[in-house]
Specification:
280 residues, alpha/beta, Rossmann fold, seven-stranded mixed beta sheet, two-stranded antiparallel sheet, 9 helices, 11 strands, globular
Length: 280
């Protein structure tokens, strides 16, 4: 868990309606890459911890008998359930819970995945619990956008979103230290998942990078949704100044482009660790 920060239920309050539109998707083929790496065959159970609106849960559902997504934000789970119905996914269930609530009576799993969520948890405690919940040889999976990717080879056909100016605007409204729920992240969020998983008793580490780089066209509404999908600029943080902030945000965007932006889709990094076969 980030230094000096305590989780609270407002971390992503109000972000659920913006999440699917605002966030760029994972690299195409990430689900197939994971299925190949772990030899998934349509059997066993998946647990997605901090599942949000079910983005990863639903993409992986076809590789398992059952998938379960847990998240403390009920609005996120409502979005996940709606999307599951829209896609016709019938083997998914959704549970309101934090990672620290595990095992929560959920049973045994073949794979437990954390997609850009592990850093919000009490990592040593959660990793030890997940080890107990996995079947022998089961996998702990950590997914994220690739950090420090190589420079993109080709220029974008449209202006990129003005991320630096957006960050400056957020700081003008919310202060210089990154907000997160009712607290702040003075030192950012932690990394070095490899050390945490080794302490917990996992082994057989593998790393897979799923390439992307495709150009994604974005509108001003998409960029606004991205801002409000983030924990450090979730709608509730602005209080009664939310409308003022959104108006100023759209002015910043308008200064760069009328309504058309472009981004390169980031590569996806997948890291896996296995529970030793000798452990129960």
């Amino acid at each position: 868990m980030p230094d000096g920060w305590q989780w609270d239920s407002t971390l992503f309050k109000g972000s659920a309606p913006y999440y699917e539109r605002g966030r760029l998707p994972y690299a195409p083929g990430f689900a197939e890459t994971l299925a190949t790496a772990l030899g998934l065959d349509g059997q066993g159970r998946l647990l997605d911890v901090g599942c949000g609106p079910g983005t990863v849960t639903l993409a992986l559902a076809r590789f398992f008998t059952e998938v379960a997504g847990i998240d403390p934000d009920e609005d996120m789970l409502a979005e996940a359930e709606r999307e599951a119905r829209r896609r016709g996914v019938t083997n998914a269930r959704w549970v309101t819970a934090r990672a620290e609530d595990l095992p929560a009576g959920l049973g045994e799993f073949r794979v437990v995945v954390f997609a850009q969520s592990f850093h919000w948890t009490d990592r040593d405690r959660v990793a030890a619990t997940v080890l107990e919940m996995l079947e022998p040889g089961g996998a702990f999976v950590h997914m994220s956008d690739l950090k420090n990717p190589p420079a993109e080879p080709a220029p974008l056909p449209l202006p990129a979103p003005p991320f630096a100016q957006i960050s400056d605007l957020v700081r003008r409204y919310l202060g210089p230290v990154r907000r997160a729920g009712q607290g702040t992240l003075v030192n950012g969020t932690p990394n070095r998942e490899d050390l945490v998983l080794a302490r917990a008793g996992f082994d057989h580490f593998e790393r897979h990078v799923v390439p992307a780089g495709e150009v994604v066209n974005r509108t001003a509404d998409d960029i606004v949704a991205w801002v409000f999908s983030r924990s450090d600029s979730a709608p509730h943080l602005f209080g009664d100044r939310l409308e003022d902030f959104e108006r100023d945000l759209r002015v910043v965007l308008q200064q760069v482009s009328d309504n058309s932006f472009a981004e390169h889709l980031p590569a996806t990094e997948i890291m896996t660790w296995l529970k030793p076969h000798g452990e129960r």
